[in-house]
Amino acid sequence: MFIELIDLLRCINAHEDTWLVASFKTVSHRFVLEASLGCPTCSAQYRVRDGIADFSAGAKLEECETERSAASHRREELATRAGAYLDATEPGATIVLGGIWAYAAQELSEMAGIRVLALNAPAEVKESETVGLLGVGSKIPVAAGSVFGVALDAWFPARIVESAVRAVRPGGRIVGPAAIPTPVELSVLAHDDNYWVAQKAPEVVTISRASR
């Protein structure tokens, strides 16, 4: 994982968001290959192995390489779809792509000038200065309201959508599989037999009349 992307990560346990303290073991050209990320609040430890940060907390990750590999040749198409679904128009923003969507990580990063955190990415997906690889269970290890959008496929546990709602900033979008119900706090923008696209409510700014 590129060293600067580590600043985006947070502990997945239930407490106030805080930076993780990194203890590096192997770093090459600013890519962290082996490290330990520690939470100063609850003392949880998360390992980085072969450049992949493990936030699975012991959860068994679905082995879906065969199913997901069918999408590997459609990277540019996936990148275009993900960019449109998530309205990825803000350079420098951070987007989370999970499973099949992670195939589009590098292409979307280059097209939109954004950073991408790829969750449970297929083995063919490689890290870069703008793409970080993470292994997760049912929680996305980022600060609340810190990412522009999240796209997930059907091989994630349903509970991860709750974590996606927390991670996305007001007005941000989430793409979820049709097999997982859309959270009631989101507004559905579009859906088909495979996915739905929904938006988190934008922040409401109260305008008060100035006193005379």
Protein described:
- This protein is of the alpha/beta class.
- It contains 4 helices and 11 strands; from the N terminus they run E-E-E-E-H-H-E-H-E-E-E-H-E-E-E.
- An 11-stranded mixed sheet has the order 1-2-3-4-7-6-5-8-9-11-10.
- Strand 3 and strand 4 form a beta hairpin.
- Helix 2 crosses helix 3.
- 38% of the residues are buried.
What features would you highlight for this structure?
single chain, 212 residues, alpha/beta, 11-stranded mixed sheet, 4 helices, 32% strand
Give a concise summary.
The protein is α/β, with parallel strands linked by helices. It is 15% helix and 32% strand.
Distance between the termini: 56 Å
Structural class: alpha/beta
Low-confidence stretches: none
Shape: globular
Order of helices and strands: EEEEHHEHEEEHEEE
Q: How many strand units?
A: 11
What do the pLDDT scores average to?
A: 91
* Adjacency order of strands in the biggest sheet: 1-2-3-4-7-6-5-8-9-11-10
Tell me the β content. Answer: 25-35%
Helix count equals 4
The main sheet comes to:
11 strands, mixed
Q: How much helix, percentage-wise, in residues? A: 10-25%
List the helices and strands and how they pair.
Elements: E1 21-28, E2 31-38, E3 45-49, E4 52-55, H1 65-69, H2 75-85, E5 94-98, H3 105-112, E6 115-119, E7 131-136, E8 147-151, H4 160-167, E9 168-177, E10 186-191, E11 195-200
Parallel strand pairs: 4-7, 5-6, 5-8, 6-7, 8-9
Antiparallel strand pairs: 1-2, 2-3, 3-4, 9-11, 10-11
Helix pairs in contact: 2-3
